[in-house]
Fold:
Amino acid sequence: MIIILEAEYELTAIRAQGAGGQNVNKVSSAIHLRFDILASSLSDWLKEKLIQSKDNRITDEGVLILKAQQFRTQEANKKDAIKRLHEIVNAANQVKPMRYATRPSYGSKQRRLQSKSQRGQVKQLRGKIAAD
Structure:
């Protein structure tokens, strides 16, 4: 688990989008989180992995931008944005195991061919009956 220091990301309060009545126009409850990947204290290979990812929240300059507006309070949205940032970084830190090619066993091939031939026989029996 990677810990990101509070000084490495910038939180900005903005007005939330969508329905919410009169309060939505007055209160800045949504949070914009900006995390500069290249300027962070992450390891070089993790920075490279994050930037190479196909995530559209990462700009060309290497800044990850998250918008949290799920909750009504600013504090809850701050916690949500920070939690999502940690999830993204920790997901990139996971190393996927190497895949290797396998072949179907002899028995599985035989079962597949047997079921195909049975299915073909069933379909053949559906034909018209020849009248003599």
Observations:
- DSSP finds three helices and three strands in the chain.
- The longest helix spans residues 74-93.
- Residues 17 and 59 are 22 Å apart (CA to CA).
- Strands lie at 9-14, 30-36, 63-68.
